[in-house]
Amino acid sequence: MSELKLDLESDLREAHDMVEGLADYLRGSEVYGSIGGLFGSGKQPALTIGALLLRLRRLNALRDQLSDAQQATLAATETRHDHLRKEWTRHYSAKIVREANSRLDAMRAYFEECRQNARLCASAYLPEAMRRTIVQEIAAFMEANGMPSQELATKMQGADGHLRRFTQPTEFIWAAELMPVYPKSNFWWLYTRPPFPEGN
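Request: output the structure for the sequence above.
Response:
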């Protein structure tokens, strides 16, 4: 998946592969799994519920851009995801909360970098924007499925306070075709970024 250039075929393939590996992932203890198993390709994204939810929502939002065959694949992928979520409800719920907390915790190192090195802060922003976006997808899913977490909401607010401190408004940082999927009201960090310091 590339946010700088829209590639729905890649999103669909990755979502399908993630769902294929979801049962084993839910039974395991790791937060970040692998699509291709232990020896999967290093180019493939990590298997997490948040990464899967991000792709599924994006694909649904842009469904009219998919071919009939792609829409059929998406429908089958969603059906399988729903089945596994219901079959492994307790595991699914625990994993999704662990992932959200893990992603927010990982952002702390970035905030420390921003305090120490403005240039590094600016150049390393895109992965952090993705981290925060996946957490948003998780929070929205939890809310929609009757699993809201005030603890997670508070932690998100803390991370957002740091993001606002180091960023300033800018144009949408991902591919323009994705703007309808990520409105500024809910994904404001995709419309900001840390400024590059002037000079060397």
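The two ends are 33 Å apart (CA to CA).
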